[in-house]
Description:
The chain is an all-beta fold. Helix content is 0%, strand content 57%. Strands 2, 4, 5, 6, 9, 10 and 11 form a 7-stranded mixed β-sheet that branches. β9 and β10 form a beta hairpin. The relative contact order is 0.32.
Amino acid sequence: QVQLVESGGGLVQAGGSLRLSCAASKSIVSTNTMGWYRQAPGKQRELVAAITSRGSTNYADSVKGRFTISRDNAKNTVYLQMDSLKPEDTAVYYCNLHFWFLQRELDYWGQGTQVTVSS
Length: 119
């Protein structure tokens, strides 16, 4: 089992910045992807950004140029720097860890952290 612990959410005014962190309880030796998803009230959970263990990144169109995902493999931690925040970024943000182990596809999720952007 892997536990993911998120931190860094909060309330910020439009145009402001927040930095989310997610620490995994153990290192994953195999190739893996860590990412951030978000879910706003009444909406489906959506991918915000993801980064592989080799450093390749992927962003939702809505956050390109404003959000930056990074990771520190030595600390088993992924970060999401969110700049130029908009009210529509308001959601619960979830950290995700995805990898394959013994031919099984595994996903682990954090508990979620609330991000609220006021106008």
